[in-house]
Amino acid sequence: QVQLVESGGGLVQAGGSLRLSCAASGSSFRLNAVGWYRQAPGKQRELVAAITSGGSTNYAGSVKGRFTISRDNAKNTVYLQMNSLKPEDTAVYYCNASVVTRHQDLEVWGQGTLVTVSS
Q1: Phi, psi of 53 (to 5 degrees)
Q2: DSSP string, 80-100
Q3: Cα separation, 71 vs 73, whole angstroms
Q4: Phi, psi at 20, each rounded to 5°
Q5: What is the dihedral of CA 49, 79, 99, 59, to 10 degrees?
Q6: Which of 5, 22, 35, 84 could link 95 by a cystine bridge, Cβ 3.0 to 4.6 Å?
Q7: Cα–chain center distance at 73
Q8: pLDDT tens digits for range 12-53
Q9: For residues 63-92, b (16+ Cβ closer than 10 Å) or e, as one string?
Q10: Nearest to residue 87, comparing CAs of 20, 19, 13?
């Protein structure tokens, strides 16, 4: 079984920065593409940024130029550096990963981490 654990959320003032981490754990797995999603109260979950196993990235228009997704394959961890945060970035942030194990391909979600940006 593979698990994803997000960390790094918290309360920050507008204009500030946070770095989120998504750490994968388990046995005999390979982490492929990983995405960061967010869900604000009363809104649908949306893709914020994604990174392939080869390091190619893409971003939602609303965060392009402010957020950076990266990965450390040796640590099975994906990061989301968030700069110039705005109140509208307030949401629960989730990571989602495509995982290959010995027996199957899986899609795994983390439990989420809350980011609150005050004005």
Answers
A1: -65, -25
A2: EEE-S--GGG-EEEEEEEEEE
A3: 6
A4: -95, 145
A5: 10
A6: 22
A7: 15
A8: 999 999 999 999 999 899 999 999 999 999 999 999 999 999
A9: beeebbbebeeeebbbbbebeebeeebbbb
A10: 13
Cα separation, 100 vs 31, whole angstroms: 7
* Residue pLDDT, tens place only, 75-104: 999 999 999 999 999 999 999 999 999 888
C-alpha–C-alpha distance, residues 81 and 9, integer Å: 11
| CA dist 7 → 22, 36, 62, 65, 92 (Å) | 7, 12, 22, 22, 11
Cα distances (angstroms) measured from residue 55 to each of 32, 68, 82, 116: 10, 12, 18, 28
